């Protein structure tokens, strides 16, 4: 079984990230306190991250950057990030063609993204609402993707300062929009997502 979850879908800056957590038959007991990353503090996610990697060593995070999200749209961006994560699993030797992927939510955006792959090499996708809360592998994918993306946004503060990336991680907030008004949009922003002034 492979758990799949995404983070960064609703951000106005930075990439979207898709995490994959692989559950193998000989897997040990899951890390204590593992749950949907949104229900964990940033400190607790960081603490769990190495435990999740040890518990699910065959895992991956794929990214689609802000320019790809702007060009393709968010759903296709999610698909691109997922394909990149699956390609990492293939390189790790994970037999994804025989796997069932549990996808958080009710909308299967993953199957169309894998449509170009040979049918014999594609996993079967099963959607499940609240899977990030109820399924350990999806919770693992959520933590891996969230920590990976958050670290990227924190590091970005040294390259594009002034937007308070360490705090907002690229999500919308009053202070984030105020920084955009003051500094203009950065190279990390999803330009098509920003509030644009009316053109007369």
UniProtKB/TrEMBL annotation:
Task: Name the principal localization, coarsely classed.
Answer: cytoplasm
User: Which Enzyme Commission number(s) are listed?
Assistant: 3.1.26.4
Reactions it catalyzes:
Endonucleolytic cleavage to 5'-phosphomonoester
SUPFAM superfamilies from the UniProt entry: Ribonuclease H-like (SSF53098)
Cellular localisation: Cytoplasm
Against Pfam families, the record matches this protein to: RNase_HII
Residues annotated as binding a divalent metal cation are 5-6, 104
Q: How is the cofactor bound?
A: Manganese or magnesium. Binds 1 divalent metal ion per monomer in the absence of substrate. May bind a second metal ion after substrate binding.
Q: Which UniProt keywords apply?
A: Cytoplasm, Endonuclease, Hydrolase, Manganese, Metal-binding, Nuclease
What InterPro entries does this protein map onto? RNase_HII (IPR022898), RNase_HII/HIII (IPR001352), RNase_HII/HIII_dom (IPR024567), RNaseH-like_sf (IPR012337), RNaseH_sf (IPR036397)
**What does this protein need as cofactor?**
Mn(2+); Mg(2+)
- Boundaries of every RNase H type-2 domain copy: 1-200
Q: Which family does the record assign?
A: Belongs to the RNase HII family.
Q: Which PANTHER family match?
A: RIBONUCLEASE H2 SUBUNIT A (PTHR10954), RIBONUCLEASE HII (PTHR10954:SF18)
* NCBIfam families named among the record's database cross-references: PRK00015.1-3
Main function: Endonuclease that specifically degrades the RNA of RNA-DNA hybrids.
The molecule here is called Ribonuclease
> What species does this protein belong to?
Homoserinibacter gongjuensis
Phylogenetic classification of the source organism: Bacteria, Bacillati, Actinomycetota, Actinomycetes, Micrococcales
């Amino acid at each position: 079984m492979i758990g799949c979850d995404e983070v960064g879908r609703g951000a106005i800056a930075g990439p979207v990230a898709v995490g994959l957590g692989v559950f193998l038959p000989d897997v040990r007991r899951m890390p204590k306190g593992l749950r949907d990353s949104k229900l964990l503090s940033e400190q607790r996610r960081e603490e769990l991250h190495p435990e999740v990697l040890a518990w699910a060593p065959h895992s991956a995070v794929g990214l689609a950057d802000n320019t790809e999200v702007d060009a393709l749209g968010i759903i296709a961006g999610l698909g691109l990030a997922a394909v990149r994560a699956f390609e990492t699993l293939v390189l790790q030797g994970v037999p994804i063609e025989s796997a069932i992927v549990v996808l958080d939510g009710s909308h299967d955006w993953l199957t169309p993204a894998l449509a170009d792959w040979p049918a014999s090499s594609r996993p079967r996708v099963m959607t499940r609402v609240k899977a990030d809360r109820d399924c350990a592998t999806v919770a693992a994918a959520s933590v891996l993707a969230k920590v990976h993306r958050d670290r990227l946004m924190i590091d970005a503060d040294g390259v594009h300062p002034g937007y308070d990336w360490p705090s907002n991680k690229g999500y919308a907030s009053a202070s984030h929009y105020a920084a955009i008004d003051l500094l203009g949009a950065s190279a990390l922003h999803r330009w098509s997502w920003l509030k644009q002034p009316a053109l007369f």
